[in-house]
Amino acid sequence: MDAAQAGDAGLRHTLDVGLWLIGAAYLVAALVGLPLFGDGAYYYFKLATDVDLLLPNLRVTAVLPQLPAWLAASLGLDAVAVRHAFSLSYQALPWLSLLACWLVVRRRWPALMVFPLLAALANLINFSGVSELLSSLYLTWPLALAMALAPERPWVRAYALAAGPLLLGLHPMAFVPAFALAAGAAVIAWQTPAQRRTWRRLGLWLAGFGALRLLWTLLGANAYERGNLTPGGLAWYLLTETPGQHVLLATVVLAGLLAGWVLWRRARGSHAAPVAAALAALCLLVLAAALAVAAELLFGHGIKLKAALVFVAELGLMTLAFALIRLTAPSAAASSPATSAALPRGPLRWLVAAMMVLILAKSAAWWTATHNLKTVIAATAADCIAFAPETPYGLQWPWMQVIDDWATPMNALAFRPRVPTAAGGVAPVPLLLPYDGCTVLARTGKAHLTSWLVRDFATLEAVFGPLRYPGTDPR
After folding, report:
1. Residues of the chain whose pLDDT is less than 70?
2. Where does 299-388 have alpha helices with state H?
3. Membrane-crossing residues (predicted)?
């Protein structure tokens, strides 16, 4: 076994173990219900109360990860079981995408895994567990690597066929990865005469769905989507917030560029030891930035639904990985498992560790917040709790910021405390309703969890368990 083969064997072992450790961290995040942050609470609430798939802004593909929770609700399982099915499904998406990338590159060029790892790490800046924008990247990463490495495989062509309509129904910006994949198909057609006809057609197929998505975005954007195009909305939607997040995103991009340079030089037989050493040092800095972001999150800073600049960085890393494969030795990359260029194992270990730090820190912040929310509800003697930006005080502690938003009334039900009674049952607990919701509930019997989301008291009690009714219970 030569040095390159030995290096690849070491990388395979490191990542075989690392991917399962990352999977275990995602499992922890699912068990504490992290995907119920923000919009996820609304997606879950609709499934639990209405046994209904949510079609957010006509994004048809978005219903696919909801199917396990919908099935659980359809079978009559309780709200906690539905919550776990929902969380497991959504937390499986980023991990399954990483696993698929690993299965694509593991035998042929394991060092390429540095790029999807860096991209997945950058994704963790975002808190949204149900984002269709991020789902478009989970879908696209394994396909981009498979197209570059094995365009002759029938399953890769089938994947490309399926990706077009799936991207069409995902997100207004999904035309960008669709066009990127179409451009990759054109490169393959140009480089590989034997595959030219097939990939030319697939490129047109992907470009066609990208054009449809772009047209839909331009002509069919709703008020919510247009609101993100204002200067203030665009800045909030695009940018990272805290010093740790800025450094993490910058070091991820720089590490991707250095990794590309190392792999390029080694694939061409050139000396790359100084650059490889710099990459190892930079990946340590990535880990340090991840630790800083973790500390910020635990103290309630930088908790952001989405920073779309991550989307731009990920597409750049994906383009770099594709170009590296096709420019080094496209014919060998497509057919021979011998194509290889090793990275030191150290940088990959630091990236795995950084991912675990961020996933577990987000999980700890969320568990702490939901646990304290349950404590506030269980300790309240009132029949209903008024929720506003200033009240209840318990939600203003730094470690409660992650749950202190418009979705809190839904999360108060999703994570309701189970207070046992002397008879062995479950005691009723108060609802948490925004502003004058308690008064409205007492008068009408309807709970206004948000300005647009209204449910009968009896429906909520049937789904989530015994609840206190403010005033005289009409039953």
Report:
1. 1-8, 220-236, 269-272, 329-342, 389-394, 396-397, 472-475
2. 309-328, 330-335, 345-378
3. 20-45, 117-139, 159-190, 202-224, 244-264, 276-295, 307-327, 348-367
Of 271, 315, 276, 386, nearest to 136 by C-alpha is: 315
Tell me whether residue 143 is exposed, middle or buried, using C-beta atoms within 10 angstroms of its C-beta: 0 to 12, 13 to 18, 19 or more. buried
Residue 82 to residue 70: CA distance in whole angstroms: 8
Tell me how far apart the alpha carbons of residues 267 and 18 are, in angstroms, rounded to a whole number. 25
What DSSP line would sit under 287-305, residue for residue?
HHHHHHHHHHHHTT-S--S
Q: Phi and psi at residue 381, in whole multiples of 5°? A: -85, -20
412: exposed, middle or buried (Cβ count in 10 Å: 0-12, 13-18, 19+)? buried
- pLDDT for res 257: 93
Token digits of residue 210? 């990208």
382: helix, coil or strand?
coil
| Eight-state DSSP code of residue 389 | T
pLDDT of residue 225: 56
- Spatial distance between the Cα atoms of 139 and 177, rounded to a whole number of angstroms: 10
Q: How far is CA 457 from CA 161, 278, 436, 473, 474, in A?
A: 47, 61, 15, 10, 10
Give the list of residues 6+ apart from residue 180 with CB closer than 8 angstroms, or none: 140, 144, 315, 318, 319
Cβ contact 143:186 at 8 Å: no
User: What is the signed CA dihedral for 239, 244, 247, 249, rounded to 10 degrees?
Assistant: -50
What is the CB neighbour count within 10 angstroms for residue 319? 15
- Locate the domains of the chain by residue range: 3-366, 379-464
The reply to whether the predicted model has a pTM over 0.70 is yes
What's the start-to-end Cα distance of the chain, in Å? 78
Distances (CA, A) of 401 to 301, 389, 397: 8, 11, 7
Rounded to an integer, what distance in angstroms lies between the CA atom of residue 302 and that of residue 127? Answer: 10
| CA–CA distance, 19 with 95 (Å, rounded to integer) | 8
d(CA 263, CA 339): 11
